[in-house]
Design the sequence.
């Protein structure tokens, strides 16, 4: 499978994401710049983390209005897999491609530490490598990761299995409703998550619990 990584001014996890995809798939992803309106033919588009456009206005708000996001939306509508990590998640929410909103952490502090994630739904293209209910380690680094959705939306996404990851008990770093750490769209091809699986894929990182997300999204899991 071919993948692409979006690069925008202010993003800073693009190199980590490129390294993770290259190591896991054996093939370097193509990169996509903010002004691009023609996305190359790929199976997976990843929007990495960072501080796009300096987090001005709201995290992800400016990026969501760039031409490249419209092009990504069109690809997603055709079924291409799209994954947003941290700022990438915020961008997908701002673009209306995922439900809810990401607000300031309840601590009002930037939180950078390892948390534990529960794989709530393993029946997705991004989580097939895991068992349902499996607890994995994953680092977080953000100040606006507090997931919010109105009561009706929350009920719907919970009932539809769109809550893919939850912070495991006692590790919610930001006050997210229902401990939500990652959600998927109704169609099942757009995933957003606040934690950074690209930073836990090999022994040099101290573990490889994040690897399964990329292996799943790239269809590298043996059936
Ligand atoms: N690591 C990130 O992607 C950070 C996202 C965003 N700038 C925040 O702090 O919430």
Sequence:
């Amino acid at each position: 499978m071919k993948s692409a990584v979006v690069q925008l001014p202010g993003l800073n996890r693009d190199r980590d994401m490129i390294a993770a995809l290259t190591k896991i798939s054996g093939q370097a992803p193509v990169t996509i710049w903010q002004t691009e309106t023609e996305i190359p033919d790929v199976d997976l588009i990843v929007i990495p983390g960072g501080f796009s456009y300096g987090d001005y206005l709201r995290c992800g708000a400016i990026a969501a209005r760039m031409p490249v996001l419209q092009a990504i939306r069109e690809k997603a509508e055709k079924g291409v897999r799209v994954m947003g990590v941290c700022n990438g998640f915020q961008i997908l929410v701002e673009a209306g491609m995922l439900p809810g909103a990401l607000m300031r952490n309840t601590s009002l502090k930037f939180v950078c530490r390892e948390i534990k994630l529960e794989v709530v739904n393993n029946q997705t293209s991004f989580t097939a490598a895991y068992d349902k209910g499996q607890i994995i380690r994953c680092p977080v680094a953000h100040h606006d990761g507090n997931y919010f959705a109105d009561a009706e939306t929350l009920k719907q996404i919970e009932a539809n299995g769109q809550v893919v990851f939850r912070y495991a008990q006692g590790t919610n770093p930001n006050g997210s409703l229902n401990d939500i750490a990652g959600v998927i769209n109704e169609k099942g091809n757009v995933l957003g998550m606040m934690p950074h699986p690209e930073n836990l894929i090999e022994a040099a990182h101290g573990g490889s619990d994040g690897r399964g997300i990329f292996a799943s999204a790239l269809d590298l899991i043996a059936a």
User: Anything to note?
Assistant: Residues 49-51, 55, 59, 86-87, 141-145 surround glutamine (CB under 6 Å). The helical segments are 14-25, 67-77, 87-94, 151-159, 211-217. The radius of gyration is 16 Å.
